[in-house]
Specification:
502 residues, alpha/beta, nine-stranded mixed beta sheet, five-stranded antiparallel beta sheet, 25 strands, globular
């Protein structure tokens, strides 16, 4: 039985030692170079007494950062990734929660890292060339269990205080194997990574690369602001697989880049994090008629992605893109407001069960207890499920469909409204490229933000043809840019704050 993710790296290094594993387009690391640096870092951490504790990684997005991740795991610890663009207050909140003794940084971030006052702060170029102690690493490995944590990823909390999601070897191993089986990655896969390393999302590229001997390119963030340049980057490196957040795809298609240059090598397109607007989804399907498309769904608290839908059929004009079915060894429960299983065709909260469910929030038992709960359908023995806060329903094909967030359901003018329905209607309006609808609770107003060439009066007229009067936004506001969170999702909290100030 496989119980440690490091075995993927070791087995692939033995098979393909000199193959390029990770690259930023300018500098790369082979599997043997990655393994050697990871061994060195793990050995030095062990010599200093690191054990089952956080190791903070404060480095730019670079293949060397992965060596630091795996070095922490070789020492029997778990990594926590910081990013230079994180606000100082967020960094401090994370460090206050962790109280770490060890930190690895690159030279670029050395001064900032040293100012964080972590007891043992190492520069990567120094620690990655330390002597490897095979005996010491072997002793650590013999004591490791598949339930040992390997990373903590901090998500945004509703109170503004970050919550650290703790994931273990077993959940990541199951996720890796299931993802590869479902999407068909292999040794010839060339990934183009979009997401920052301090989220769980890069696991979609990192782990299949380790297991299958694939290659991952870290696409420079600036390219996503210049869609034609982005596609040229994909073509230059013969990237055939992308697993991006929806906003990245929309940025490309809505600005007409697909009409100017085609991604010549793309054969697998996976998307997630938000609902893909149908107009933009259809543009990608038209541009890449022979590519395989997958919709991925899942929260960080369930090791990233839990469900997938393979787009092997045409969708009806108004049909939402399904999230499909759960990965192997994952169970989806739809629970109604009474904690009972939702009837066929009935809406329910999407709850996730299985080894994909992570270990809870680091040093935060109160928040853990709110979301990681006993399965209400099982009173016989302990069985933890994760309540996502997402509302879903099964369609006529038996496919799970995401409908909205629980917190996007509002009561307005005596009516219960799903803001996602207003967004969907807005996206059908001519000249609208993106849309986000929020509710300003204090002023009790529905506010629609959008990007595109349409004017507010034109959108209002079209919405009036499709929505009842009580769902018509009180304010329609055109934006130059849609604000995004660090992981590329629409920044709805920021939009709500803007709406309250209108």
């Amino acid at each position: 039985m496989r119980k440690n993710i490091l075995s993927y790296l070791e087995e692939t290094t033995e098979r393909l030692p000199h193959k390029l594993a990770f690259s930023n387009g300018k500098e790369g690391m082979s599997f043997s170079e990655l393994l050697e640096a990871s061994h060195a870092i793990g050995s030095e951490l062990c010599r200093l007494g690191a054990k089952r504790e956080p190791v903070v990684i404060f480095m730019d997005k670079h293949p060397k950062a992965l060596a630091a991740f795996f070095g922490a795991i070789y020492a029997g610890c778990f990594y926590v990734c910081l990013d230079e663009k994180m606000p100082e207050a967020r960094m401090r909140a994370i460090l206050d929660n962790l109280n770490p003794r060890f930190l690895v940084c690159d030279k670029k971030n050395q001064k900032r890292a040293e100012a964080l006052c972590v007891a043992h702060t190492f520069v990567y170029d120094d620690i990655s060339v330390c002597d490897t102690d095979v005996v010491l690493l072997g002793k650590v490995r013999a004591e490791q269990c598949d339930t040992d944590p390997i990373y903590v990823v901090f998500t945004s909390g509703s109170t503004g205080i970050p919550k650290g999601v703790v994931a273990c070897h077993r959940s990541v191993i199951d996720y890796t194997d299931s993802l590869i089986d479902a999407l068909g990655f292999d040794e010839n896969t060339v990934f183009g990574n979009q997401t920052p390393l301090y989220f769980d999302a890069p696991l979609k590229e990192i782990m299949p690369t380790l297991k299958m001997g694939a290659t991952t390119y870290f696409i420079p963030k600036v390219n996503f602001s210049f869609p034609v340049r982005l596609i040229e980057y994909l073509n230059e490196h013969k990237i055939n697989t992308v697993c991006w957040v929806v906003s990245a795809f929309v940025q490309v298609s809505s600005l007409g880049a697909l009409e100017k240059v085609k991604p010549e090598y793309l054969t697998t397109v996976a998307f997630g994090s938000e609902v893909f607007p149908r107009k933009q989804y259809d543009l990608w399907r038209e541009a890449l008629p022979d590519a395989r498309f997958f919709n991925l769904y899942g929260p960080t608290e369930a090791t990233g992605m839990s469900c997938y839908w393979y787009a092997n059929r045409a969708l009806a004009e108004d049909e939402p893109i399904p999230v499909g079915r759960p990965f192997d060894n994952t169970r989806i429960l739809l629970l109604n407001d009474d904690g009972k299983e939702a009837a066929l065709g009935e809406n329910g909260e999407i709850c996730i069960c299985g080894t994909c469910v992570t270990m809870g929030y680091y040093n935060n038992p109160e928040k853990t207890g709110e979301s990681f709960v006993q399965n209400p359908l099982n009173s016989a023995y302990p069985e933890v499920i994760y309540r996502t806060g997402d509302i879903g329903r099964y369609n006529e094909y038996g496919e799970l469909c995401f409908l909205c967030r629980k917190d996007s359901q509002i009561k307005h003018m005596g009516h219960r409204i799903e803001l996602g329905e207003i967004e969907a209607a807005a996206l059908k309006c001519s000249g609208v490229r993106r849309a986000a609808c929020v509710y300003a609770a204090e002023s009790k107003r529905i506010v629609l933000f959008y990007l595109g060439e349409a004017d507010e009066n034109g959108i209002l007229a079209e919405l009036s043809l499709h929505l009842p009067r009580y769902m018509i936004p009180n304010i329609i506001k055109k934006l130059d840019n849609m604000p995004l969170t660090d992981n590329g999702k629409t920044d709805r909290r920021g939009l709500r704050e803007s709406a309250e100030n209108m």
